[in-house]
Structures are given as C-alpha cells and as structure tokens.
Amino acid sequence: MIDPFQRRPSPRPHPARSGSLAASVETARQLHDAGASTDALTVLSEALRHADTSIVNPSAAPAAAYYAELLHASGESAAARPWAAYARNCHDHLYGAGHQHTVEATMLLARIAHTLRDPAAWQIHDDLVATLTSVHGADAPQTVAAIADLAQILHRTGHCHTALTRLQTIDTIHRRPRPATEVTIRVCARLGRLLQDCGHLPQAAAHLDQAHDHAARLLGATNDLTRLIAGLADRRPDPQHQPVCEYRRTRPDPPAGVAGPIPEGAW
C-alpha cells in the first residue's frame, strides 16, 4: 500500500471499474445513515478487498476515502490512515492538489494523523495550509481553520512559540474591520487556551474574555460555543504540556502581539 507520508512518483492510472465500487459506496452510505455503521464498514471492506493500492484507480479513491472516514469515526484511526493516504494520492494525481476532492482527502488524512499523534501530522497540515491559501486565500474560513489545527499540533509537540505566532498571524489578518465569525472566535479562544497551557494566564484570560464577548454577541449567551468558551476561563493548564513547553524551558515571554486582547472593533 502507498506510504501515507512519502511522496512517490505518480503511479500509472488504472482503468476504472466504477459500477460495483460506486454501488458499494452508495450502499455503505445508506447503511451508515440508518445507523448500521458496522455493516457499512463490512460492505466497504469487501469492496476494497482486492484493490491494488499501488496504482491510481479513479473509482477506488472515493471508496477508500469513505472507508477511511468511517474507520476513523469508529475509533480505528490506525487502520484508516493508509486508506486516507491512498485516496489523497489518487485524487492528487487525477485532479491536482487544489481540487476539492484532493483537499477533502488531505483534510481527512490530517485529522487522522493528528488523532494518532503522528510526528508527520504537522507536515500534512502545513501542506494543506499552503494548498488552501493558494486556492482560497489566506483569510478564507477553511484556511484559517487549517492554520489553527496546525498551531495546535505544533504546540502539543513543544513548538509553542511557533504555534502562538501562527495563531497571532490569523488574529492580525482579522484585525481589519469586519464582523466576528465563528471561525475567528474559535481561533481567539484557542489562542487563549494554548496560552493557558504555557502558563501565560493574564494573556490567556484576555483572549478568552474577548472570544466569549464576541461569541455571546454573534451566537447568543446560550449557544454551545459561548458556553464552552466561558468554561475555559476556569480551566487549569494541562499538566501533560508542562514537560514539553518551550516557554518553561527556554522562552520567558509569549510572542509579540499576544500580550493583550484584540482591540474592540478589530473584527
């Protein structure tokens, strides 16, 4: 099977045998929608049993992507990873990195790698950010969300300064006059949460307060996101982050620009 984290020479296309695979995917979707996820996985497992994952097969790629999605959702992320990688590589070869199918497959692979805490997760996310930026722009919602996910991975692995700087870059982009969005609110809250874990509690509180205020205005005080952000205010720093925290080891201060809240009216 194609190595999910190694770029290989483009394999030769395989003649599509779309009928049975497409029918299997449709059957699996119907089973999943009906709550029979185990049966859906069985259908896809049988359909892909003899798939040659060393070659590009336009009909196998969607089946592999959906199979990986269901495996990941069922908690079998390790089994899902090679299928997600195969789907991504096929779509990339067939349509290019910026095509929606390729982007969706890359996002799935990135989520799986993140869940598995794979060291290569940051590289997948970094590639995804570059692709989304070139296709949709640096401040598109999907690009912002990918940058935030990348920052969380970097932070978790002890690259705290880089992680916070990436999130601060998003904040800087969104300082232009514009209304708050759910994506920018989540970024502000995530920045506060990561600052908490690094021990920068006053700065964290400032960002969480601002995220909560914007969420309450945009979504309402009873919205789930507003309540979640409110709960973060009393959250203690994650003790598992302390041994790897870059600030606790080498840097006393957060990066410039995250010492206080974003000015009112910035969004």
| Category by helix and strand content | mainly alpha
- Count of distinct strands: 0
Number of domains: 2
Output mean pLDDT: 83
Strand content: under 5%
- Contiguous runs where pLDDT drops below 50 for at least 5 residues: 1-18, 257-267
Describe the structure.
- This protein is mainly α.
- The protein folds into two domains: 1-118, Serine Threonine Protein Phosphatase 5, Tetratricopeptide repeat; 137-267.
- The protein is built from twelve helices and no strands.
- It is elongated.
- Residues 1-18 and 257-267 have low confidence and may be disordered.
Topology:
Elements: H1 18-33, H2 37-47, H3 60-73, H4 77-95, H5 100-115, H6 121-136, H7 141-156, H8 160-173, H9 182-197, H10 201-219, H11 224-232, H12 246-249
Helix pairs in contact: 1-2, 1-3, 2-3, 3-4, 4-5, 5-6, 6-7, 7-8, 7-9, 8-9, 9-10, 10-11
Name the features.
12 helices, 2 domains, Serine Threonine Protein Phosphatase 5, Tetratricopeptide repeat, single chain, about 0% strand, disordered N terminus, mainly alpha, disordered C terminus
Task: Write a brief caption for the model.
The chain has helices at residues 18-33, 37-47, 60-73, 77-95, 100-115, 121-136, 141-156, 160-173, 182-197, 201-219, 224-232, 246-249.
